[in-house]
Every structure is written in structure tokens, then in C-alpha cells.
Amino acid sequence: MASEKLILVDFDHTLYRRDSLVEFTRYAVGTRRWFWGIVRLMPLLIANRIRLRDGASTKAAWLRYFFGGWPAETFQAIGKSFALHHIDRHLDPTLYPYLKTQHNSTIVIVTASAAEWIGAWTEREGFQLLATGLKYAEGKLNGELEGANCKGPEKVRRVKMSYDLNQYATIEVFGKGRGDRELLGLAKAVQQHQ
Fold it and tell me: Percentage of residues in the chain with pLDDT exceeding 70?
């Protein structure tokens, strides 16, 4: 009989109050290179904001510009350092403490960001993770996404692939972005949280 609770949580601008890719990039390359990179990429970022360009191709362009050709070991080591030393600074002061009280629940972070800069933190916290994958070639990051960007309907697809939703009497969903609308539709037996 279904009894356990499943809690699905978006990361950027929901559990983490900022954009983790932007914050991680600044951490990895330094404020000066980060700033001038944003200036250089501004036309793409504006096009994405007004929906003339999709999020996946914009993210790939960002990754290529800042990290294309980086050795996998270097990229992943800096990502782990960011996860373990910087994520805690910008967590939602209401949602994070609530999640830490849910000891008998399965908590899954469902995010368009990548495990490379979030995974070490979710592992430490005991949360599960569904995230966007990144491609590597010859031991280096090539700036492309591995599979679909984990956003919108893709979030729902990933959840349904990984979990039997019928096993849970209660599903809570936390998401504040436009890429979370479909995910919010999975909530059952409780109020949705926006």
C-alpha cells in the first residue's frame, strides 16, 4: 500500500535562491572573466529571455564560451568545491529547513542545472538528483548537453522514468519557475507550493 511521501524540488530560484550556473561560473572563472563573458553573450541571453532562443541552446553556448575544452577532472573538481562550500549560502530559509524535517520522505532535486556543480551537495544532504547531463569528448568538456535539458515536460519525463508515482500516497512539488509548471502537475494529496 502506498504510504511514503515523494517530494520533488526545483533547484534554481526555488531551493537555491539564485541561478547556480551563473554563480558557479563566477566562482570557477573569476568575476572579471565572468562579467566580460556576460557582456559578450548578452545578445543570446536577451534572446533567451524574450523566448526567441531556447534554454538548451543558450545553456550550451554559455558552457562552450566559459568551459569548452576544460579537462573533465578540473571542471568536476571546481564544481564539487562550489557545491560543498557555496550552495549553503543561498538556500531558501523556509524550504530548506522544511526538507530537513522530512526524514521518511524521498526528496528529489529536479533541475535544469548539472550534477557537476550540484551533485556533491545533494549527496551530502541525502537528496536524490535528476539533472541535465553534460557531454565530454577525449576527457574534456565540449559545451554540449547530454540528452534533453531537464526543464518543463522533460522534468516530468525524468521523474516518471525514475519513480513509480503510484507507490506514493503523497507527492509534494516545489517549483517557482516557468519550467516547473508541468512538474507542479504531479502533486497529489497536498496543496501545490509556488
Answer: 95
Q: Give the separation between CA 126 and CA 107, rounded to whole angstroms.
A: 8
- The residues pairing with 174 across neighbouring beta strands, listed in sequence order, are 9, 193
**Confidence band (pLDDT; 50, 70, 90) for 1?**
very low
pTM above 0.85, yes or no: yes
Among candidates 79, 38, 68, which has minimal Cα distance to 144? 68
Query: Which position has the higher pLDDT, 178 or 60?
Result: 60
- Name the DSSP letter for residue 70: -
- Give the three cell numbers for residue 93: 530559509
The span from the CA of 24 to the CA of 116, in Å, is: 10
Query: Grid coordinates representing 48?
Result: 533567451
**In 3-state terms, what secondary structure has residue 144?**
strand
